[in-house]
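Sanity check. The docking grid for calcium ion depends on where the pocket ends up, so I'm generating a full predicted complex first rather than guessing from homology. Inputs follow.
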Amino acid sequence: LGIDCIWLLPMYPSPMKDDGYDIMDYYDVNHEYGSLNDFIELINQAHKRNIKVFADLVVNHTSDQHHWFKEAKKGKSSPFHNYYVWTDDPSKYSQARVIFKDTETSNWAWCNDCKRYYWHRFFSHQPDLNYENPAVREEMIRIIDFWFKIGLDGFRVDAVPYLFEKEGTNCENLPETHQYIKEVRKFLAQNYPDRVLLAEVNQWPEDLIPYFGNGDEFHMAFNFPLMPRLFMALKKEHHGPIVDIINNTPSIPNNCQWAIFLRNHDELTLEMCTDEERDYMYQEYAQDPQMKLNMGIRRRLAPLLDNDRRKIELLYTILFCLPGAPVIYYGDEIGMGDNIYQGDRNGVRTPMHWNDNRNAGFSTSNPSKLYAPVITDPEYNYNSINVESQLNSHHSLLKFLKKIIGIRKSSNVFAEGALSFVYPENKKILTFFRELDGKKVLCVFNLASTSQAVELDIRNFNGYIPIEMFGGATFPKIGELPYLLTLSPYGYYVLLLEKN
Ligand code: CA
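Predicted complex below; grid placement will be based on this.
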């Protein structure tokens, strides 16, 4: 594909009640995947190919099977009791919302061993670590040190806003949490200045931006507010949702970067939507109630876009033209389907389709033993939707992804350039410039299911000649008059502007 980084979902020993986000040992690899030495070999092989490796780091909570928690349950006399958050009064922190509201009714759970309640922002089998305890804060830095020492390049840090709790608040984004991240960053600056911390902070821009600090907290953060609006703009056939969220997102420090994405391993979260926007998204993208989960939609990219190649290409092209590092979820590069009849988020976490052999080439084991069934739905069957068949086809989605990754990497204007919108009268068209050090790219997208014409007032680029970056064709020179473009349904142009 031409990618330059792999982000691994949690690979630690775990009872797997939450697909590894319930860690029982931070210093080892789940033996079903291999040994620690295998992991080091993976990092080394990736580095040989100029690919960096990030891992997930779950900082807010552990599994209830972690030996810290097993010890902590013994009561106040245990040295590990204080590793977790306990109370005798479950009305404490009552302003904190319940996140997994489809499964949990409270953030407190009763421990029958020590006859106290413990705090959990997510599943009740995931007790929150107590960040008020200096031993916990030091332990997490020791864990980071351990993995960076063996060559890991970065962490995607899970569920960051929930580290600290404080009475009278919603227990999210507290100043203490920011203070601790600054401490971690200081540790990196002193010991691992070339490693990266990428934040999972599913919050509105005003609460998300502070996680960059003054360039002294996270290096990167996922752009959660942008993601659902890409889907919204497409369905509404209107550039408003994308233009508004980007215009309303403050700029970030120079040494920071967004990670931008269409889909990931979780539900398409609608937490950063208004009630009206959420209703609209459910109505348009989750007609079957089985598709809804918590406050989102548990679907992969291709099924969300009706398996319409034009829409898939369009959203990917928008993504790759926007500022930030694009992140692709495994399987979405070949348009894999999902299975909404699997519980929780398992339907978007099924085995990768490598080829049309047994278990889609993912495993030689007895199919009944797989952690989740491969996709056999007629439209998305692994017999046809797989890497091998797409490598053999010049027009596959995989080849398209490879092409657009190549275009993206051909110029640093996409990663680092400034973005400025053009506001055509035709609101079905999304248009912006990307500019860096004299390099200029004009990006034009038709969000509509019908052919469209658009007149662009871009006379300040008078004299420039647009070159279409997918095929290299030359377009008419830009002049004083409005620049006219016609676009097919869901069509797009990425135009490099050349002076001569
Ligand atoms: Ca917490």
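Relevant for the grid: The chain has a mean pLDDT of 96.
Also worth noting: Residues 60, 121, 128, 162-163, 165 surround calcium ion (CB under 6 Å).
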